[in-house]
Backbone:
């Protein structure tokens, strides 16, 4: 039975070579890679959100509840972390509609966001409408600088700046996350910088092994003890502090609740 399945699988791959990507990028393959290279059978240690941000409480003035965005807790985490720094300098890779950066810009002095130029987005076959939606919420904010370029060859060193808070939320495939992680640590961080990776997890209880592997391979060895999974978010974080932690044990028994007030403001003129 197994041999028949294997033969059938090989025939399908020969007919459709793109299926090989699903095999190579499967979670099981990446979990095996992490175990073999890093000796890890578990995820990053989970640190409680209330330890990262004591008495966690934050308001978001812009949230669309549309596809491809972050959880409210992800963006609230960023905004709260920005408050740690007087005159915070923020940098992110991956703008999309601009929800994360526009919220952080409420409390940060200076924000930079890097995304592919429109021509590159169109060349990927993603369409004019999709390309034009990048920065939808953030383009008009005066303290946000929109940079264009591919992070794989973007000259981060030429920025000649260090940032307090850095959010890595671009292409989530291994090569890109590893590249972005390496370059951020090489060129953008100072001694007290905080780095946050989005989509380290599919949801707060299920990690994304391909992204996890890239973070481990991209972060400097000496900084790996300060890598955590922030509870109730899809984020991994580098924060040079020691915290009590636990292992992810899904399904989790809830140990906190969040009070949420939803208020909708229309962006369309009233008829």
Residues:
């Amino acid at each position: 039975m197994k041999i028949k399945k294997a033969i059938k699988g090989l025939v399908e791959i020969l007919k459709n070579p793109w299926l090989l990507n699903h095999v190579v990028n499967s979670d099981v393959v990446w979990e095996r890679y992490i175990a073999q290279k890093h000796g890890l059978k578990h995820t990053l240690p989970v640190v409680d959100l209330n330890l990262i941000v004591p008495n966690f409480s934050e308001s978001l003035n812009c949230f669309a509840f549309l596809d491809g965005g972050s959880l409210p807790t992800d963006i609230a985490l960023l905004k709260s972390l920005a408050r740690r720094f007087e005159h915070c300098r923020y940098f992110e890779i991956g703008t999309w509609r601009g929800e994360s950066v526009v919220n952080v810009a409420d409390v940060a002095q200076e924000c930079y966001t890097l995304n592919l130029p429109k021509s590159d987005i169109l060349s990927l076959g993603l369409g004019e409408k999709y390309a034009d939606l990048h920065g939808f919420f953030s383009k008009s904010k005066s303290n946000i600088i929109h940079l264009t370029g591919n992070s794989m060859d973007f000259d981060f060193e030429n920025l000649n700046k260090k940032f307090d808070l850095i959010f890595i939320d671009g292409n989530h495939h291994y090569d890109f996350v590893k590249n972005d992680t390496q370059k951020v640590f090489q060129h953008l961080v100072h001694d007290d910088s905080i780095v946050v990776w989005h989509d380290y997890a599919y949801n707060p209880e299920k990690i994304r092994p391909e992204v996890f592997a890239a973070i481990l391979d991209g972060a400097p060895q000496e900084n790996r003890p300060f890598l955590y999974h922030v509870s109730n978010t899809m984020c991994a974080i580098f924060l040079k502090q020691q915290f009590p932690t636990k292992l992810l044990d899904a399904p989790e028994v809830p140990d906190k609740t969040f009070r949420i007030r939803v208020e909708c403001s229309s962006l369309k003129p009233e008829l």
